[in-house]
Specification:
Blueprint: H1 24-33, H2 39-56, H3 70-101, H4 109-120, H5 124-144, H6 146-149, H7 158-194, H8 208-220
Helix pairs in contact: 2-3, 2-7, 3-7, 3-8, 4-7, 5-7
């Protein structure tokens, strides 16, 4: 198993202290990286379990309408795997790109490791509250304003209740993905604006983090 560059801290940074506690996702991805095999297998396996459970709770004899169709549930499962796997991929790519950019940054080793940590790690509380508030607002709209959004849910129907549970996870991850992307792009902007030293003899270094922003944009699309 190859150690993910996101978690490799240079031993020279003796004064390194994490600027904030890592988010739930960073703790999860750190655990997964210690397991054998590629991280995509674990995220895909998790989404398959969620999708199978969601479909198994649906009533095959019932008239299925709106967002409760099996195809929508399968698509929700795809989103779960993609968001988790793509965020993990972006963090790994960000760590590699930042290491490549190191010679062009006016940072000592401790400051470099802290900037690297900020680039690849979300703060715990904002990451939690962004998702929690988004899910709460979404559920309030579904439960109290069904006519506005065009979705009516009967909590007495198990198939619809299971869809809500899957929807909870999807909305949680979608808001997490939005915050993850915004946080990472802001960190890239900070690095380029405040710490970059332009080397005209090696301009390729300047594009290492730019590639990360392109990948992020493609993932959003």
């Amino acid at each position: 198993m190859t150690e993910d560059p996101k978690y490799v801290i240079n031993a020279q940074a003796d004064d390194f202290r994490i600027p904030y506690q890592p988010s739930w996702f960073d703790r999860l991805s750190a655990r997964i990286d210690r397991l054998p095999g590629t991280y995509w297998l674990y995220y895909i396996g998790f989404s398959l379990v969620i999708t199978i459970l969601s479909i198994s709770f649906s009533d095959p004899g019932a008239q299925v309408e709106g967002p409760f169709t099996p195809s929508i549930r399968i698509y929700a499962g795809y989103l779960i795997a993609f968001i988790l796997g793509f965020a993990h991929f972006l963090d790994s790519q960000a760590a590699r790109a930042f290491d490549i950019l190191r010679p062009s940054l006016d940072l000592d080793q401790t400051a470099f490791e802290q900037a690297r940590y900020r680039l690849t790690t979300l703060p715990a509380r904002p990451a939690f509250w962004v998702s929690a508030i988004t899910v709460t607002l979404a559920y309030c709209m579904i439960l109290f304003f069904p006519d506005v959004i065009g979705v009516s849910v009967d909590l007495r129907v198990l198939s619809q209740l299971s869809f809500l549970a899957e929807g909870f996870l999807v909305w949680w991850l979608l808001s997490f993905a939005a915050y993850h992307t915004l946080h990472q792009l802001l960190q890239v902007r900070t690095v380029y604006a405040n710490h970059l030293q332009v080397n005209l003899y090696n301009p390729r270094l300047l594009y290492s983090l730019s590639n990360l922003t392109v990948i992020s944009s493609i993932g959003v699309i």
